[in-house]
Amino acid sequence: MQLVLLGAPGAGKGTQGELLEKEFSLPRIASGDLIRQAVKQGTRLGEQARAYVAQGELVPDELVTELVKERLAAPDTEAGFILDGFPRTLTQAQSLAEYLAAQNRGAVTALFLALDEEVLLHRLTGRRFCPRCGTSFHLTGRPPKREGICDACGGQLEQRPDDTETVIRNRLRVYRQETEPVLDFYADKGLLQRVDGSGDPEAIFSRIQAVLGEKRL
Ligand SMILES: [Zn+2]
Questions:
Q1: Residue 21: burial class (beta carbons within 10 Å; 0-12, 13-18, 19+)
Q2: Which residue in the list 40, 146, 160, 173 is annotated as catalytic?
């Protein structure tokens, strides 16, 4: 089973990817992790990526694609894989399809975790963390026992600058612009499965299992 997880920031791709990884014993390949590992290990591609990461810039399409292809060449992906964070753009989706076709590996199933933008905004702007011990909270999802105070160490909770409404609206807008063509690409090929991304992780995972179960019949 070759899966691609699609969804906006905050839609729960990471959590669902982990659940899928456990359920199906397939490697979960997160493009962000690949980049970090390659940079850390100082591989040829990692060295190229380092310059962008160091300057806080996005690693270019082609370089991320090369990293993913290199990872997909490893034998543990023969039975399948779960891609998280890739493809982000139409070019990446096309490159992935060409790569798999050239190897007779068949098409992917693209799972799109669909969630209303206001819900995403609420999820992301509600995040708080404790700078002293690193514990994460959420104003509604996982509220601290005392407002603004860390349960674990009593530290003052803060919001990351990345989690403010302006920054998040901008991230969601960029995401939409980049990813809508990717959704269309998979939809045109009949490979897109839309999954309702609302509710708790277990509920979402049940919907994913239902979708994947139907496909295999
Ligand atoms: Zn703390």
A1: middle
A2: 160
